[in-house]
Amino acid sequence: MKRWLAMLLCAGLALGLCACGETGGQSVATTAKTALNTREAVEQQVSAGQMSGTDVKLGDTPQTVLNLYPTMPSAPDDGATRQTAAHADEDELFLEITEGQQLTRMQYEAYQFFYINDQAEQGVGVIINSKDAYHFTANTTFVEDVTYALGAPDVQDQPGMDQQFFMLGTPTNLQRLTYLFGTKRLDFIFDDGLLAMTVLTDTEIYDGFYTATQTDTTAV
Fold it and tell me: Domain containing 107: what range?
C-alpha cells in the first residue's frame, strides 16, 4: 500500500512539474507576442501619421486643426460681453496659435502641431505629445519600458539644443530614442530618465525642420 502511495505521489509531482514548465513557456510566449503586437500597433499608427490622443494627423492643413479645436472668441464691441469673452478660457480650453518667422505652432492642451509658414499647404509636419502617447505615459515611463515594448531604437542619443525648442527651460539630462517607420520618425525624449515628450515627424516633408528652428526663436 505504501509503495503504491509513493508511486502515485511521484507521478503527481512529475505531472505538476510538467504543467509548471508549460505555463512558464506560455507566459514567455504571451509576453513576447504582446510586445510584438505593441510594436505593430505603434508602427501602423505612425505610418499613417497618427499621434494617439488627437485626431490631427501629419499632413493635415492648419484649417483642419482649426476645425477640430475651438479658438478664443473675438472680443466684441460691447464692453460687458468683451469681459465674458476675455475670461472664457477659465472654463474651456482653446487652441493657441504662435506664428514665428518660419514656423507656426498650434497648441491645444498637451499637444503641439507645427507647420512651416511658406509650406502650409503641405500641412502639419510635427506633432508633439507631452501626455499619453501610444500607451506610454509622460513622467511615469522609463527608457526600458519603451525598448521592451518596441525593441531596440534605430538611434539612441542626446538631442541637440535645436531639438529642444518645444521644451520649457533648458534641460541638460536628456535622452532620445528614435524609431524610423518609412518616412515617419518617432522620437521619445526623456528628461532625467522619465518620458517628457513624444515627437512624431514627417521626415520626407520636414527633413530640414529642426535646422529651421535654430534661427526661429519667435515660434517657441
Answer: 46-219
The three grid cell numbers given for residue 57, joined into one nine-digit string: 494627423
pLDDT in tens, 1-46: 444 444 444 444 444 444 444 444 444 444 444 454 588 899 999 9
Report the candidate in 83, 119, 81 with the shortest Cα–Cα distance to residue 103: 119
Q: Domain tally for the chain?
A: 1
What does each C-alpha distance from 3 to 7, 38, 79, 104, 215 come to in angstroms? Answer: 6, 53, 99, 84, 87
DSSP summary character for residue 152: S
Strand partners, 128: 112, 199
Question: Whole-angstrom Cα distance, residue 4 to residue 7?
Answer: 5
The verdict on residue 66 lying in a domain is: yes
pTM of the predicted structure, to 2 decimals: 0.72
Give the CA distances from residue 15 to residues 3, 6, 11, 59, in Å, rounded to whole numbers and listed in that order.
19, 14, 6, 59
Q: Which amino acid is at 164?
A: Q
Whether the CB-CB separation of 220 and 105 falls below 8 Å is answered with yes
Q: Which three cell numbers stand for residue 115?
A: 507647420
Residue 163 CA: distances (Å) to CA of 95, 170, 220: 23, 11, 12
Q: What angle do CA 46, 134, 129 make, to 5 degrees?
A: 85
d(CA 107, CA 65) in angstroms, rounded, equals 10
